[in-house]
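Q: what does this look like with fe (ii) ion bound?
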Amino acid sequence: MSYLFHQPLLRWAMVGLLSMLATQTRAQPWSFGILADTQWPRYAWYVPADSLGSPLVAALGGDSIEIVSVDSIGGWRNPHTVAADFLHQIHDRFRQHGVKLVVATGDLADESTLDAIHSRATWAQELYESGIGFFPVRGNHDATADVAAEFVRLFPQTQDGIQRAIPADAVLWTDSAQLHPYRNPQALPFAVGTGFSSPEGALGRSYAFQYGGATFALIDIFPGPDGVSLPAAAQLTWLDSVLAARPANTPAFVFCHYPLLGINHTEQLFGSSPVYDTASQGAFIRILQKRGVKVYVAGHDHILQHSLVSSATNPAERIEQIILSGASFKFYPPSVPSVDELYNIPAFGWSREVPLVQDLGQVGYVVATVDGQKVVFESWGAPSGILAGEIFKSGDLSGKWTLRRRWGWSENGKGMRIEPGGSYQVLSDSGAGTSARILWGGWQRSVATRPAEPFPNGSPPTGRAMLIWPAQPGRCGAWSWKRARRPPVRLSFPYGSIRARPGPI
Ligand SMILES: [Fe+2]
């Protein structure tokens, strides 16, 4: 425990060792997108302004506050509580990135109504009709029984991978803003993914499949069409079997709307706060560890937060968790003190979270690239204009997107931690008949994703590094996840056909 949690500031690094020395035939890299919360509010308390933009409430009193349609404020671009304007723009980005499929981690709309899920499905069809598969899972805003039934009807690809035109009675958008879904229905249907399965009691809501040498598992913990939910704890046997059945050393991604440990909300995969059902939390962590799942991905907090999260009983039981930025109207602030500090320290006497990266106020999405055993997550963001709060106009994000962060791993790598400002020289690995170690280099400075404010719990944003040995000789390199820049390192390769580079790479 002291190794992990009693050092004031920790850095995390991972050394990856890929097959080497012989050029191998391998599949082409491919990418998928990840979207989190895409809700938009129906109503807002609105303070009218005069012609100069000054609020009238001071002159007229509280009666001048009106309840108005938020969609009307934004020019009718986000109908039926769906963030259609952001979706429309992000779908364009996904087309440009060339993703093969998109995963949505829930809160598909703000209201759990038939109109909302119909509208969300209509906009999702932009992806199908661009040849991109769509694999959603529900969030707490999509949690009613009638939406559960409609979810299964509108997204049958969660059971067979076939991307279809949605039923005619579900096509729903408004053309008030002349913002139409991209339509090319002749492209349908087509298949994405194989080996679909669901746990008994959550057919088509929780599901797993394989695509491109990777395994995807999405967990729905909300009420089904009969009003009965299948708790995450009851899905662990299914999850374990799915992860165990995949080929060795292949990537697997586990998604749910709720984090295991939030940064704003207290809800987690197994209950209403971090101290609830710690036994199942531990079991979940152990399954992901045992099955080699490198990251658990969630939404709900509308904040990009990457952390190491431990079980309540054993700091060696830990997973990496990424909470995603949303594409919504809400931008939550991180809880200060953190949810971890508020709940885990009083309950267990120690912190269960090592925060690595945080990014606020961004409309965001992720493009993950699978290159054999190597996986890279690229977090893209466009500034919302605020760090925390709510916006009621979605706005044009073109030209505003930046790569916020690049991070990843190799399936046969190993991880270790480095002190802040520490040297890379502790990084070493061996395997496949050779070994590698870093001769020189270290972190130059922290990753600064929030230049205007300190990290809320006093820890600086941190970075990671990975030493990669691709199959082709002469292309060894080191990655850092600092805005896609490489760290200044020198590498040593003691033998084999790979030559050391005599300086920074
Ligand atoms: Fe949520």
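The pocket of fe (ii) ion is lined by residues 37, 107, 139-141, 257, 300 (CB under 6 Å). Residues 1-25, 444-505 have pLDDT under 50 and may be disordered.
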